[in-house]
Amino acid sequence: MTESLGEALPKRMAQVREMIPICESLGPGCDFIVACMKADLQKAETVIAAGDVVGMIDVYRSLMDYKL
After folding, report:
1. Distances in Å between the alpha carbon of 67 and those of 38, 52, 58?
2. Phi then psi for 42, rounded to 5 degrees?
3. What does the alpha-carbon distance between residue 26 and residue 2 come to, in Å, rounded to a whole number?
């Protein structure tokens, strides 16, 4: 069974939130990526609250780009 966007997006948001402290611990060279992660998380919260499915797909794809 595949996950729905409504299940996958919050799960990915939690994973990205877990990455932030790790990236921050690497020093100031990671400040830009941390800022991008936080901006994408804020966007995700906004589009979820608005029920914007196209926006949710877009931000989900952005969140999937973050790797450790």
Report:
1. 14, 25, 17
2. -65, -40
3. 35
- Rounded to whole angstroms, how far apart are CA atoms 5 and 28? 33
68 pLDDT band, cuts 50/70/90, is confident
The model's pTM is 0.93
pLDDT for 1 equals: 63
Helices (H), the chain: 5-25, 31-50, 53-64
Specify the 3-state DSSP secondary structure of 65. Answer: coil
d(CA 67, CA 23): 10
